[in-house]
Design brief:
The protein is an alpha+beta fold. Among the domains are: about 45 residues, no CATH class; about 100 residues, no CATH class. The chain has six helices and eleven strands. The strands form four sheets. It has a four-stranded antiparallel β-sheet with strand order 1-11-10-9, with helices on one face. A three-stranded antiparallel β-sheet has the order 4-3-7, with no helix packed on it. α1 crosses α3. The longest helix is centred in the first third of the chain and has 11 residues. The protein is elongated and about 65 Å long.
């Protein structure tokens, strides 16, 4: 079946809406992700541009990571990046200071409060407080560069449950092209940056960067 073609005077956003809602396209590509990829392909002028767009998709990064001493980072002041967000200072002992272990597997778990916790039908055993992080502070809602990965930036935020999590975002091998109006407009349209979602998702921060 013929795939809809983008008109010369048609914006990418309008074309994608038309292509995605096309009856024949819905029949041929019932999977929304696949249909989106096919429609998006019709807006690209070159193979190089298609490859760049695919790589940029990776900048959305991972979802939230529950904080533990294994992934907790205290950034240097010059690693922080100002995204003009309201910030809050927090120390690690209010995040995940109490260490418990599974008495059978010896797997460690970290909790914000001391209490009775169960995993795999077994009561966890309290081990200690994460004393090595006592007094360590981080700033919430203020991204920082992560030279050692896993992504270009990380940011500490509170999720919908009120827990502090670390969100990783941005491809460390790609430069942000927000200074190129066409690239910026394309990225923001693809990721619906007018409605970027909650702060504890990578898309929110990728949209802020663009």
């Amino acid at each position: 079946m013929p795939i809809p073609q983008k008109n010369a005077d048609e914006s990418q956003k309008k074309f994608l809406a038309r292509c995605m809602s096309n009856t024949k396209m819905n029949e041929e590509y019932p999977n929304e992700t696949q249909r989106y990829a096919v429609c998006m392909n019709q807006t690209k002028s070159s193979l190089l541009e298609q490859v760049c767009e695919i790589i940029e998709e990776n900048s959305l990064g991972f979802e939230e990571d529950e904080l533990t001493p294994f992934n907790f980072i205290v950034p240097e002041e010059d690693q922080y990046v100002d995204f003009e967000e309201e910030t809050e200072e927090l120390d690690f002992n209010t995040i995940a200071a109490f260490i418990y272990k599974d008495p059978i597997t010896n797997e460690l778990y970290y909790y914000q409060r001391q209490g009775v916790y169960t995993k795999n039908g077994r009561n966890l055993v309290f081990v200690s407080k994460a004393a090595e992080y006592q007094g360590k502070k981080v700033t919430l809602s203020k991204p920082f560069r992560t030279p050692d990965g896993p992504k270009k930036f990380s940011v500490y935020v509170k999720n919908d449950k009120g827990n502090v999590v670390k969100v990783n975002f941005g491809d460390p091998n790609m430069k942000i092209k927000k200074n190129i109006p066409e690239r910026r407009k394309s990225f923001r349209a693809r990721h619906n940056c007018d409605n970027p979602g909650p702060k504890w998702k990578a898309r929110y921060w990728s949209c802020k960067a663009w």
